């Protein structure tokens, strides 16, 4: 599940440069209602360490300086890879649950 | 300006302050903002937050401390050589001295760099003070060893003076390069 969330976070960051709280609200909008800034923050840290995203400090709409993330070249490649892998997994799960063709 | 600029942990601290300020502006608690208990959040953070340091950071620090310790040994040797009969009491073997310097530099380099991803990562000033205290202790002990044990005659030989001067210049030059290096790292990761 963590891997799926990471892929989705990367896709959101790919759409626009954004920061933690905005990412959480976007995740809520897409149906990840359990997403919290507290779980997101360590994931962002991990993605940054892996070199998939990079952060720069800018003022958030609320005022305080927050770290805005954008994708690196490796991050963009990973998003592509993630989506391809996800489609394969989704197909396999559908096959297992006998949903194919229904 | 400090020799050490903010580490990646410092940047995370800045981000955490941003989260806390946003919570304050919204009139909610920090725990409400992050959606979990503080301990759980910190545990997750510690698990993910361990930073793998690059080998260049270790090399830069190692060389700096090696020069500092070599300088200390050189000064000790100068003092010993300038004292009549002192060489019998304090004969510094070059090879052993270099090994001691290398080991000491490795320890200091490890402490300087690795500790930045450790438990004191959020208190750079305290850490820096502590590192300089260690170095001062090393120098102080060396000097004390010489001053207490020998009847000093401070005449300096030209060659020793030249070597020591070169070492002093190298230490300052390397300190300058080290500062530049951390400034570049600081820019790269937006630590400031």
Automatic annotation (TrEMBL), chain A:
<protein>
    <submittedName>
        <fullName>PadR family transcriptional regulator</fullName>
    </submittedName>
</protein>
<dbReference type="Pfam" id="PF03551">
    <property type="entry name" value="PadR"/>
</dbReference>
<dbReference type="InterPro" id="IPR036390">
    <property type="entry name" value="WH_DNA-bd_sf"/>
</dbReference>
<dbReference type="InterPro" id="IPR005149">
    <property type="entry name" value="Tscrpt_reg_PadR_N"/>
</dbReference>
<dbReference type="InterPro" id="IPR052509">
    <property type="entry name" value="Metal_resp_DNA-bind_regulator"/>
</dbReference>
<dbReference type="InterPro" id="IPR036388">
    <property type="entry name" value="WH-like_DNA-bd_sf"/>
</dbReference>
<feature type="domain" description="Transcription regulator PadR N-terminal">
    <location>
        <begin position="9"/>
        <end position="79"/>
    </location>
</feature>
């Amino acid at each position: 599940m963590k891997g799926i969330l990471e892929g989705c976070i990367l896709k959101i960051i790919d759409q626009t440069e954004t920061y933690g709280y905005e990412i959480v609200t976007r995740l809520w909008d897409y149906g990840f209602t359990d997403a919290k800034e507290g779980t997101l923050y360590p994931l962002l840290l991990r993605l940054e360490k892996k070199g998939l995203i990079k952060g720069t400090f800018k003022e958030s709409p609320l005022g305080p300086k927050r770290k805005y993330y954008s994708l690196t070249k490796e991050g963009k490649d990973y998003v592509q890879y993630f989506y391809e892998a996800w489609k394969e997994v989704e197909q396999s799960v559908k096959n297992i649950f006998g949903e194919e063709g229904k | 300006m400090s020799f050490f600029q903010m580490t990646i942990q410092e940047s995370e601290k800045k981000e955490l302050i941003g989260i806390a300020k946003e919570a304050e502006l919204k009139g909610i608690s920090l725990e409400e903002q992050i959606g979990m208990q503080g301990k759980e959040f910190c545990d997750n953070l510690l698990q993910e937050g361990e930073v793998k340091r690059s080998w260049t950071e270790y090399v830069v620090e190692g060389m700096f401390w090696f020069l500092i310790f070599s300088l200390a040994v050189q000064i000790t040797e100068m003092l010993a050589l300038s004292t009549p009969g002192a060489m019998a009491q304090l004969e510094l073997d070059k090879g052993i001295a270099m090994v001691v310097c290398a080991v000491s530099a490795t320890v200091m380099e490890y402490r300087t760099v690795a500790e930045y991803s450790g438990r004191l990562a959020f208190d750079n000033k305290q850490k820096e003070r502590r590192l300089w205290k260690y170095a001062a202790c090393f120098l102080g002990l060396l000097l004390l060893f010489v001053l207490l044990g020998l009847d000093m005659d401070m005449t300096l030989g030209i060659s020793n003076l030249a070597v020591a001067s070169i070492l002093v210049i190298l230490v300052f030059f390397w300190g300058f390069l080290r500062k530049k290096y951390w400034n570049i790292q600081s820019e790269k990761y937006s630590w400031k």
